[in-house]
Batch of 2 targets.
Target 1
Amino acid sequence: MGTARYITRRLIFAVCLIWGVSVILFAMINAIGNPIEILLAERPGITDEIIESVTKYYGLDGSVTDRYFTWLWAIVRLDFGTSIIYNLPVSEMLVIYGMETLKIQIPGIVIALFVSVMISVLAATRQYSKVDFGVIAGAMVGHSLPGFLLGIILILIFSYWLGILPSYGAYSTRNPVMGSEVIDGLWHMVLPVSMLVFFNTATLTLLLRSSLVDVLRQDFITAARASGLPERRVVFGHALRNAFIPVLTYLGILFGLMLGTAPVTETVFTWPGLGALYIMAIQQLDYPLIMGATMIITVMLVTATLLTDIAYVVIDPRIRLG
Amino acid sequence: MNAMIDPADVRSASVLEVSGLETRFGAVRAVDGVSFAVARGETLCIVGESGSGKSATALSVMGLIPSGSGRVAAGSIRLAGHGELRGLSDAAMAEIRGRAIGMVFQEPMTSLNPVFRVGTQIAEVMRRHEDISRSAARDRAVDLLRMVGIPSPESRAQDYPHQLSGGMRQRVMIAMAIACDPMLILADEPTTALDVTIQAQILALIDALKHRLGSGIVFITHDLRVVAQIAQQVCVMYAGVVVERAPVRALLRDPLHPYTVGLMASVPGTAPRSGLRRLPAIPGTVPNLAALPKGCRFRNRCPRAFALCAEAEPPLAVPANGDPEREVRCWLYVEGAAA
């Protein structure tokens, strides 16, 4: 019963948070000024009358509160308006570009999770060995490397020197790899996903290894060994689940910020994802697109946080009474 | 002893026989030639202060000395029906741990996995060692919880460790230790972290289980009052060696080794009352095991040390003109040695 109430409370909190962001976002965009003026001013043949009538046409002449609630009611119905630059419905664009982003970000996190679990177990069960120090050093370097640098190095090696992997885009414009569009898509994913896996693995390994080292020293691990459980079961069954508790927060942030951190990867690999789209929208002051993308990123982050909170309840029974 | 005779035949009642056990952590001999035996249905107490090697002895028997930091360097550990344990592979030892030997730890608050239900943790031990269905294991876990005196065991089995008190958790640990009817129970200071009233209940429980299961018990403690309540045999350890071994009554009535005498004197209530007197303490501290003094390890703190003590380490031997069931490691009891 406590669990249901806990989740309900978190859910209400999440909705309030999203609403709060919508207010701040709207206030900030509003503070920039009338977009019609900014977009049309100083162009040849534009008179004040034209600006006025276009402003009226877009309903931008009403009071701030009126406009806010009109917008809020629209986004609740998932209507984010039409992109000024692309002249396409924003919601449609968010879905199309969002899918491209998820296509590299989800494998980037999931694969990194598996890899970091394996590496962390390897290192933590051999604490202070050469393997362990190697893992720590590698993870530190990977964690501190600037994001774009590795991407450029990968492109240099695999695209420029070896010429085996494509350096940009999600699809070949013609002649798909091995004549199959599926294989072609996967082939294009290799480099960006590798880069994401590398960075996510580095950070997750740093966290998970130290957490695991800490857990393996606990009395209940000695007790599990003393009851004859095989080492594999002790490490993967008893230790790992406890070691994951502090890592969960970071994992939640990773999922939540998937779209927020996408710009770097997508710029390096010219990936047609939401991150690249977001940057473009900001550069070209495409208001509906900026606002739609910001709301989507907010919802993703809040949802990820909510799922993290729920995951905590599942993984750590001590929270359930709270 | 004739090498042709199997030690198991000589003392057929022994569940566990440890002889010449030596456990090293680097250059440090935490356990330095320790020997003892436990019979079925008997409780052997190993007494000593922190750093005396009593916990390292228990972990050596379990094969749980962390391989990165230490190892059992010499000696023999024989378990009835299993023969020599030293040198067994980790997989073979894992078969014995939890099945033939159950272990109870000092810290009930941290010895249970916080993320699993206690019933599940007990059932897991049974499912590890016996061919038993999930539901049967669960039923037996409830029976075990009832056996160790936990009220309404059906619902308690569904609890997580943090929902139970320290005493209840220690009962759960005991239930886990006895889940597979082990012939030997190793209890490493199982009552140290508990309130005095709970302590007495846990001691009574362990004693009752011993009679019911007929297991041998090695009970490690630093508390002589606990020894008086539960032991039949006592080994007093100091700085990695056994300094005195005796049946409990003889030891408490007439401690021989100056260290045992000091331990007894520093327990409130064992010396004659003299109003508000200050408890005597043994001066000094346990010597650094990496740089042991020459001769007897206790001589620096011993009120009765004499010249010979600084020259040679005394053997663990039957005291001259004394009880043949006792052994003491002190020159005072070696004929012709004392000045």
Target 2
Amino acid sequence: MNRKKALITLLVTLAIAWGSIGAMLLAGWAPKLGLDLQGGFAVVLVGPEGTDTDTLDTAVEIMRRRIEELGSVQEPEISVQGERSIVVQLPGVDDRERALQAVGTTGELSFRPVLGLVPQSPALTDPEGDHPDNLDPVTGLSHPDDVNAAIAYLPSEDGFSVYVVGPAFLTGSDMKGGRAQFSGTGGHGGAGGWVVVPEFTDEGGEKFRLATGELASYPVGSPQRQLAIVVDGVVGSAPEVAAGVSPDEGLDPNQVVITIGSSEEPQAESEDLAAILNYGALPTTFERERVESVSASLGSDSLKAGLIAGLIGLALVTIYMIIYYRVLGVIAMVGLTVFGSLLIGAIILLGEFQGTTLTLAGVTGIIVSIGITLDSYIVYFERVKEEFHTGRPLRPSIDHAYPGAFSTILKGDTVTFLAAILLYLLAIGPVKGFALTLGIATLVDVFVSYFYTRPGTWLVAHSPLGDGGWFTIRGAMGRSSRSATPTEPVEVSS
Amino acid sequence: MSVLTRMYRGETHFDFVGAARKTLIVSAGLIVLSLLLLLIRPLNLSIDFTGGVIVTVENQSDVDIADVRAALGDIGQAGARVQLTGEGFILIQTEALDAAAQDELIVVAASVGGTDVNAVTIDAVGPTFGAEVTRAAIQALVVFLFIVALFITWRFEWKMALAALAALFHDLIITAGLFAAFGFVVTPATVIALLTILGYSLYDTVVVFDKVDENVELMHDRYTYTEIVNASMNQVLMRSINTSLTSLIPVGSLLLVGSFAFGAHTLREFALALFIGIAIGTYSSIFVAAPLLAFWKEREEDWVVARKRAMRRRGGDASLVVGDDVRPMAETVPAAPSVPTASSGAAARAPRKRKKRR
């Protein structure tokens, strides 16, 4: 290592660490705070035994849609955890009742006759006409949706058209579910393709037969021959009753398949529809396994406590490190700001791009990681002392100590990183947030050790602060007399 | 020269392995005690594991416990645990409740406390979720231990992996025992703390073993395994102490702040577990993991030979039993591992110059 190389490495590292955090703060980015730190509302919902993953995903989608309708929620975090749990986190929400209502029930599935298909709500194009009462003044759509309404205006899933539908023929309780499968002949236009096979209860099957019979009396190609499959006020799909179905008999519920029209991703689309049918057919609402609401003041108290603890701890550690390691202690504490900048920067980036929030457990993870990163300095400095005590001069000791120290740091960090990854993958709840910050911290620690500590210490060693009085690296070596003046007999020190 | 000065200068020659014969007995005693305690007084698990409801509401109407109980009795929750905190909050804890009963409880809590329904903080956990949290935690732990054991076996050797795991269980059991003894509540935060302790303890042990591994390379033809372990531990002693201190200081301030700030009660439990665990973890990597390794390795054929050779060379008693050589060995513990490399030059130079001065 030479001076130029060390200086460049150090400056680049400092620029990356301090520059990026500075830029983020200037841009107004800050770590996204979790529920427990800013207050809000969290529910864990557990689906019935045997709920499959697709159905859970559909439920998450539907809940997200409903929560967005609530407004005032900053960043709803809804995710599937474990086998059949859905965790809904609503930071900043204080209207308990509405939030619970939004996430607590399954979406209502209904099969309704299509009366017409228009690009815009008739209530907007023809304000004078005879329209239902429950229309949203802005969109002109029925809200809330009533499955028994004589007429309702519901959006298609892509939001580009509006279906005018009649009262429901059958609802979710008439369904057992549905499954997507590839059919050799059942596809669009008689060719092979993906289809969805709905399964009805006995009663539902009978209703379905009557409904399709009724629709079959309309001419082929007419929108009125379509059967709208509606979930939560949105038309998920509107298949047309095939030509040749007798209006007197309708479709046999045990033989019916829904073909997916020309689509770029027929498989995905058929699986989506099957999931909607399964989801709508869920016999009960999701169980509320855990309800947690944190008042905003309690959350900010926790944050304050965590920050105060961190600052006090940092101040005490600084004093200790500087008394013990003199100028090396200063290197460690400046290094801690590099470490902190990179760690917080990573958390901000994750929050910005992944929506990851910083929870109380995450804050404790940061406090714990202070110990981990300081250890890397201590391992290195103690090794320098050791080398120095064997009689090596100061500067070669510093160079010679690094490879061994780095190898130890790497091994230690690997173990901690393994632990963090496993915790993140396997654990649920608050442990995840802790594991995340811990894992990032170990990576940052290795980076800082190699690109900051090594060149930084080298440069200090080659400056007036290297060799000299109390506040130098030599001063931190303890047994300075022995190698400084090798003329002294060794026995003196024992 | 005082012990502290010698420690600062890295000149200590403590016989850790010899001392471990006594400390291991203490450790074993503590483990047995902890296990007994855990049997007699099972861990006080929080609602996160058992399921239950905790409602927190500000006591604006300044009611007392009896008032709260009376109000709870009206909705059939007479069995609830009620607590008034020093900060003017009412804490109500019940068994797991269904959604309707939770709503009922919130309304009652709000009316008793004299606040709005939305100002009530509730934490309700169903028994299934608690079971899942526990299951996930245990699964994570088992996989973690397995992989760590593999890692140590790969980087070092399997005997080190087993010694490290032994130290780990030592830490876990004693920490759990302390929690049982004092009836501290075990929350997910404490579980995190326990896992962190595992990390710390392992990290510490890995640092010691790394040194042992390195020293075996340098010293194996002249010293016994016990001596090498002792030398290694003396070398990493200040690092262990400093690391523990710099880890304990932030955790200690967390404990302090957590004890005063109400909102931070999760922090307090977390910090407590961490504080105890880090202290025990440091102790165990010095007095459990490394000595166990030394006792074990001394029985290997190669090291028995090495011991005989070393003793013969020094004219000592070749039949010395492991760890018996407390005093004489302390002097033979080399001050630094780099015997064949760095110090040879300095050692050779020093006497020569001394002559000159005379």
